[in-house]
Specification:
The structure is a homodimer. By secondary structure, the first copy, chain A, is an alpha/beta fold. Chain A has helices at residues 6-16, 29-35, 53-62, 66-71, 80-91, 106-114, 126-140, 151-167, 182-194, 210-217, 239-248, 257-271, 277-287, 290-293; strands spanning 25-26, 38-43, 73-76, 96-101, 118-122, 143-144, 173-177, 199-205, 251-255, 297-302. The first copy, chain A, contains 14 helices and ten strands. The mean pLDDT of chain A is 95.
Chain lengths: 314, 314
């Protein structure tokens, strides 16, 4: 498998540019004051389908041949990747077969439906997801697009950080949340490719700290029954993302559920934008470690904004 | 009293430009599809203090002499103007005395406090507000800055539409919500001043339709016990704003509470930004009158984003 690199991510950006939103980088003098540093928020919550996942899905779809597109694409996903793949497929008049766990958030199920994805529900285990997906792929011939264990996906996700660093050239630190590691992989390749002095920090919930353990014990450790409000960060790394993260990431910092909820509410209140808990994890890292970030220029990737309003933690 | 005009609004823009946020104009292909027209949302919910009011307050404060600033400023306000005046005063090291009704939303009280405003609570009637304010002004010598019955405030509020039309020159219709009429006055002067063919429509809750009645009966009719979720639109027009509106506004359209809540939720869900009910009234006008706006390019001013999360209507 080819390792994604900065050049391929720049190509991916040209490929997807006319399909995606060039999301704004927002700042908040109020939150800067609270944090004691200068924060630059890359707002992928304002991306199409409300998440960075649309970048990777678009890149993966646009790299398929006509013959492949005719058979459609398939994936299993807890939500945002499923919505992203559905919409990216629809834009190319292709079918998207989506395997979703039956406990996926309502808002994410509705989103997939509204984008024309063909949903098959399964039990919320990796085994059930994979066997259900396998049956669909065998029946339809659809191309499996993994949510993160796929170089084309990682290249697409890296384009958010590319836009951020094009717009703000003097960032000293970039923080991205880590679940399966697709966003973190793409982000870290771009940051280190542009300037190896930029520090790349991964943000992870304490209650789903498989990447943290894997990184510091230097062996792949699976996520087992994680229980965090950050529902986008439940999955384990893959071999591909783990290898990229080991090479490019400087540090992984974990945060409590309380810190995640506090950061999420702060953004809603002060910035008037809607972020999902997974997005808040990166800001929670800063607010839980103020000395470390004092007076630094820090880029933060807000990964998405899909929440169920009737299940707000505040 | 001098009537505000386009030239003075352009001067106000130069005066306040370095103090305010140049808020983004956002679009949503999803909401355009639902509405059947092209909507351009001027996001004053992303303005400092979360509302367009910061524009008017900044302009009014920056026009004061040093001697006047030393005595401070005072106002009565249900919320956003109070927060705006407090912060604008603080930036010039001036005091802001704020009279607030004791039923004002918690988030707005907290905002005024956090910006250093000196609050005096009173009963939620116009009489109580005015007598409390009078006593404070007599005691301190502070300059009274009315929330909308003040040319400097109206000039400041007009700068939002000025930025919108500078960025999108081909808008056919501009919609702004109407409460006291400060935003609508400034907006209508700018729109008609730039191109008299731009249609200016005011959006008002059916449950607080004093401007509608005043406009179509051609006489000033007071708002009596209005009961709407759009808590920024409870006040009556003033003589000044009514005279400007009669001259520059083409139409006032009222909408139901259900339509306001639907529009508010739609924006939260699809655009991932937080708007307060008063902001949603303008979009509700479009969604309740789709034929009228079909295929038009419509500018909508989102007036603010201050909400109590524990009192959401959805």
């Amino acid at each position: 498998m080819i390792q994604p690199n900065l050049k391929e991510i720049k190509n991916a950006h040209l490929r997807i540019a006319s399909y995606i939103n060039k999301t704004p980088v927002l700042t908040s003098s109020n939150i800067n004051e609270i944090a004691g540093c200068n924060l630059f928020f890359k707002c992928e919550n304002l991306q199409k389908v409300g998440a960075f996942k649309y970048r990777g899905a678009s890149n993966a779809i646009l790299k398929l041949s006509k013959a492949e597109l005719e058979k459609g694409v398939a994936t299993h996903s807890s939500g945002n990747h499923a919505a992203a793949l559905s919409l990216a497929a629809k834009k190319q008049n292709a079918k998207a077969y989506i395997v979703m766990p039956n406990n996926a958030p309502k808002s994410k199920i509705e989103a997939v439906k509204s984008y024309g994805g063909i949903i098959t529900f399964c039990e919320p285990t990796l085994v059930a997801r994979e066997s259900t997906l396998k049956a669909i792929v065998e029946e339809t011939g659809a191309i499996f697009i993994h949510p993160f264990d796929n170089p084309n996906i990682i290249e697409g996700q890296g384009t958010a950080c590319l836009e951020l660093l094009n717009e703000h050239k003097n960032l000293e630190i970039i923080i991205a949340p880590v679940g399966g590691g697709g966003l973190l992989s793409g982000t870290s390749i771009v940051a280190k490719g542009i300037d190896k002095n930029i520090k790349v920090i991964a943000a992870e919930p304490k209650n789903a700290d498989d990447a943290y353990k894997s990184f510091y014990q230097n062996k792949f450790i699976e996520s087992i029954n994680p229980n965090t409000i950050a529902d986008g960060l439940l999955t384990s790394l893959s071999e591909l993302t783990f290898s990229i993260i080991k090479k490019n990431v400087d540090e992984i910092i974990t945060v409590s559920e309380e810190a995640i909820i506090f950061a999420m509410k702060l953004v809603w209140q002060r910035m008037k934008i809607i972020i999902e808990p997974s997005s808040a994890v990166a800001l929670a890292v800063v607010l839980s470690n103020k000395e470390k970030f004092k007076n630094k220029s820090v880029g933060i990737i807000f990964s998405g904004g899909n929440v169920d309003f009737d299940k707000l933690p505040f």
